[in-house]
């Protein structure tokens, strides 16, 4: 009996998930605790989590190629609108200014803050555009049934781009900026502002729609795990490691450099010199945090009189204006988050060095929180970028960036890098693998 032919417009990769095309067990090593588990069959909307630490190993979406590609195209269109029309305008006493999105970066460069300006434009427009184009390129090839050129390299770069895309953080910064000047001038939101809001939402939806497990299976298949790989044990104890990019379990030849057999990512049993690099980055961030709070982050000129404000000073001004919610946002993003992240990562490093075996799950959760919240500290940098570009009314009213903008931006970047260089598997290495979960064979799915 002949098998019915697949419809041309029904891609094989969408109609048959990996579980339906591979009969053998598909093994994964958790990126956060190194525990090896077998992925269970997943339905649309389900995800598999590590039974030891709860880290998500895989999640399944319905029609992943069509969904992510449609969202990426829509997001690119919204970004095109955002960069093609006026972003926001203000006027005071008949004098005003109107800016486009790109001016939030170019104005900083004109004020001799090129590093801050480059960070702004890269995080809100350039890197997101590269990410969206990469998604479209990948999914277009998969929908055609034949991956396009450089698909593997592009797919490998997606996970590295995601943390540095901050369109959603920029929106919060824009709202804070507008609230700060709403009582001093008339504000008019342009088409670009609303287009960028739509873009930020669509970009977030695109990143959430990527089914990495399905994508890598469709691109490169599912090579067999090394022989005698056991679930319910760590990969390191079996001289194995899970690829940090595609998730495939690979053998680690002793004393040799190795790459993943599926995506060609560099492999290490643990991130090289993880603690040393994390401590170095934390030290640099701590040093930069001092000038970030001592020096002014911006200088405001009004009717010929100039006044500088630090981060804490800006929070105090917002409180005096009665903008308690905005003051709370700035205080949390600019003080609580960076200080908390420095303390949390330092504590994790100390706990690993002391081989403390208690509360591994709590420490892993703390690591996830520090990794997630770090980017939100960029709110203050974006506030400066918007206000400096917008408030250009000569001696009547103008704002210039201060040296603290670069220092604080450096703190944000350094703490993000510190979280990336810290290997959470070291938390579990400090304890013995005796406390195993009740079911070692299959991770939890829900």
Automatic annotation (TrEMBL):
Record keywords: Cell inner membrane, Cell membrane, Membrane, Transmembrane, Transmembrane helix
Transmembrane segments: 69-95, 115-140, 161-183, 189-207, 279-298, 326-351, 372-391, 403-422
One Pfam family this sequence matches: PqiA
One cellular component term from this protein's GO annotations in UniProt: plasma membrane
Membrane disposition: Multi-pass membrane protein
Cell location: Cell inner membrane
Protein's UniProt keywords contain Membrane: yes
Coarse class of the protein's main subcellular location: membrane
InterPro entries, per database record: PqiA-like, PqiA-like_proteobact, PqiA-PqiB_transport
Family the entry assigns: Belongs to the PqiA family.
Protein's UniProt name: Paraquat-inducible protein A
């Amino acid at each position: 009996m002949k098998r019915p032919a697949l419809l041309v417009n029904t891609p094989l990769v969408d109609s048959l998930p990996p579980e339906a095309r591979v009969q053998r067990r598909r093994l994964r090593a958790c990126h956060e605790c190194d525990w090896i588990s077998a992925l269970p069959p997943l339905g649309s909307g389900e995800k598999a989590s590590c039974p030891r630490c709860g880290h998500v190993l895989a999640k399944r979406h319905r029609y992943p190629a069509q969904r992510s590609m449609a969202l990426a195209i829509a997001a690119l269109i919204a970004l095109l609108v955002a960069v093609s029309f006026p972003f926001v305008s203000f006027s005071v006493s008949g004098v005003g200014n109107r800016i486009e999105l790109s001016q939030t970066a170019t104005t900083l460069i004109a004020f001799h803050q090129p590093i801050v300006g480059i960070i702004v434009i890269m995080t809100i427009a350039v890197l997101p555009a590269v990410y969206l184009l990469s998604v479209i390129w990948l999914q277009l090839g998969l929908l055609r049934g034949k991956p396009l050129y450089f698909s593997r390299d592009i797919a490998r770069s997606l996970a590295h781009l995601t943390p540095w895309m901050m369109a959603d953080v920029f929106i919060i910064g824009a709202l804070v900026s507008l609230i700060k000047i709403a009582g001093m001038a008339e504000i008019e939101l342009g088409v670009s502002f609303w287009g960028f809001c739509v873009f930020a939402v669509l970009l977030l939806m695109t990143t959430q729609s990527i089914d990495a497990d399905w994508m890598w299976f469709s691109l490169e298949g599912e090579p067999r795990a090394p022989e005698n790989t056991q679930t319910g044990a760590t990969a390191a104890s079996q001289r194995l490691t899970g690829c940090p990019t595609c998730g495939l379990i690979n053998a680690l030849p002793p004393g040799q450099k190795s790459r993943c057999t599926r995506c060609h990512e560099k492999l290490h049993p643990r991130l090289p010199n993880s603690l040393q690099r994390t401590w170095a980055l934390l030290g640099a961030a701590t040093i930069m945090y001092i000038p970030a709070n001592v020096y002014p982050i911006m200088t405001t000129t009004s009717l010929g009189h100039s006044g500088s404000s630090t981060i804490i000073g800006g929070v105090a001004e917002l409180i005096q204006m009665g903008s308690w919610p905005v003051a709370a946002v700035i205080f949390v993003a600019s003080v609580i988050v960076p200080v908390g992240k420095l303390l949390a990562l330092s504590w994790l490093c100390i706990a690993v060095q002391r081989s403390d075996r208690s509360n591994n799950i709590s420490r892993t959760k703390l690591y996830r929180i520090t990794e997630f919240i770090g980017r939100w500290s960029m709110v203050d940098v974006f506030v400066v970028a918007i206000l400096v570009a917008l408030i250009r009314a000569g001696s009547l009213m103008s704002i210039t960036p201060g040296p603290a903008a670069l220092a604080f931006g450096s703190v944000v970047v350094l703490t993000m890098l510190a979280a990336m260089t810290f290997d959470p598997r070291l938390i579990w290495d400090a304890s013995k693998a005796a406390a195993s979960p009740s079911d070692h064979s299959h991770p939890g799915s829900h």
